[in-house]
Amino acid sequence: MERSFKNILVTGGAGFIGSNMIRYLLGEKIDFEGRVINLDLLTYAGNLENLSGVAEKAGKRYVFVKGDIRDKSLVEEVFEEFDVDSVIHFAAESHVDRSIVSPDAFITTNVIGTFNLLEAAKKAWEGKDNDILFHHISTDEVYGSLGPHGYFREDSPYDPHSPYSASKAASDHLVMAYHHTYGLPVTLSNCSNNYGPYQFPEKFIPLMILNMLEGKPLPIYGDGKNIRDWLYVEDHNIAVWLIMKKGILGQKYNIGGENEWENIKLVNKLIYIISCEAKKDPELLKKLIVFVKDRPGHDRRYAIDCGKIKRELGWRQTVEFEEGLRRTVRWYMEHMDWVNRVRSGEYMRWIELNYLKR
Ligand code: NAD
Ligand code: DAU
């Protein structure tokens, strides 16, 4: 039987994947008629513009609370005030390079913040067992790095290499511990690299798109042969909803694009797409490529085996890569106002710190 929810707490709903999830939950494509409570601190990565039009359209079905998941009493109040019966926990510090430069917020938000949410859920849901669920959003990076062969499966051992992935691994373990020890109804998903609209331009694909559009250098770490498995953000969210509805409690599900790309080959594909979409000379774009000092501890290859969610829940990727990239490129071309606004003073300081010293 499928679960049905009334009040879904989405943490980090003003970020890239969270905002796409909220649009999906409140849109026409799914069978959800309840309310979404978006709890977000609005860090540099969180932006209410990512949800423009949502509040107006959804009316009472959408509530925004500006707050920090590290604040235990606030988290408890949110559970109580909004009668939360399910959680989709996206809120996190999410950028690997930042975790190398300043790991503190990764530990406090990703580990302590998750702990606070689990505690609040345990307290609020005591005695209830029907249609309550804590879904934790995690990453394939917890599994570490692959050589040229093989895939991450749900039973692959955890071997995180960056402060970011170590903090996500710690939060995954806490989520599972709350299931095993206290019987908290949890599900967990580990997804590969997402791309699509509203992704903060510190990440690889939007950074490359914008630098190509603006004629700026395209910084490739190391030899450019690191491999990532790319998935369109909407396909991630479809998978999350399927797990929420039908996933087995206490289990984890890998979600991936089955779409592996070497970074340098992906940049060349983007050059081709941007030369068509933005009428740029591909030869001039190629000249913008610069190989820069590698990321410390740079994981070589990620690749997900997502056979379990396909077999058991009937999930499939729906957006083909070239189509997804074209949509994404067009979205950034049409939303340069958004780009200019999210590039705050903080963003400019980050770019200076991360690239000018390389
Ligand atoms: P993001 O950085 O775009 O958004 C994170 C959001 O969390 C922001 O809105 C931010 O304001 C909020 N936030 C941060 N600290 C907070 C705090 N202490 N309290 C409340 N809110 C806080 O991240 P994203 O790329 O959308 O990733 C979302 C989740 O998905 C993360 O848990 C990440 O680990 C996971 N994930 C991301 C990817 C990817 O490719 N981006 C892939 C797999 C898993
Ligand atoms: O795999 C899932 C993970 O994907 C998520 O858990 C993380 O939140 C998300 O940030 C992402 O991590 P990556 O480190 O894989 O993504 P990023 O966009 O930072 O980098 C992708 C690849 O591109 C990686 O091999 C590093 C490389 N890179 C990145 C940047 C920003 C460059 O070569 N140059 C760059 O300027």
Features:
alpha/beta; 3-stranded mixed sheet; 16% strand; globular; binds nicotinamide-adenine-dinucleotide
**Stretches where pLDDT falls below 50 for ≥5 residues?**
none
Q: Helices and strands: which structural class?
A: alpha/beta
**Anisotropy-based shape:** globular
Reported by name, the CATH topology of one domain is Rossmann fold
Mean of the pLDDT scores?
Answer: 96
Write the layout of secondary structure elements.
Blueprint: E1 7-11, H1 16-25, E2 35-40, H2 54-58, E3 62-66, H3 72-81, E4 86-89, H4 96-101, H5 104-124, E5 133-139, H6 163-182, E6 186-191, E7 193-195, H7 204-214, E8 218-221, E9 227-232, H8 233-246, E10 251-255, E11 260-262, H9 263-277, H10 282-286, E12 289-292, H11 307-313, H12 321-334, H13 336-342, H14 345-356
Bound molecules: nicotinamide-adenine-dinucleotide and 2'deoxy-thymidine-5'-diphospho-alpha-D-glucose.
Describe the structure.
With 358 residues, the protein is α/β, with parallel strands linked by helices. It has a domain at 7-194 and 232-256 and 298-317 and 346-354: Rossmann fold. 44% of the residues lie in helices and 16% in strands. It contains 14 helices and twelve strands. The protein has helices at residues 16-25, 54-58, 72-81, 96-101, 104-124, 163-182, 204-214, 233-246, 263-277, 282-286, 307-313, 321-334, 336-342, 345-356, and strands at 7-11, 35-40, 62-66, 86-89, 133-139, 186-191, 193-195, 218-221, 227-232, 251-255, 260-262, 289-292. The protein has a seven-stranded parallel sheet with strand order 3-2-1-4-5-6-10, with helices on both faces. A three-stranded mixed sheet has the order 7-9-11. Helix 1 (16-25) links the parallel strand 1 and strand 2. The protein starts with 6 loop residues before the first strand and ends with a helix. The mean pLDDT is 96. 2'deoxy-thymidine-5'-diphospho-alpha-D-glucose binds at residues 94-96, 139-141, 192-193, 203-204, 207, 219-221, 226, 228, 263, 295, 302.
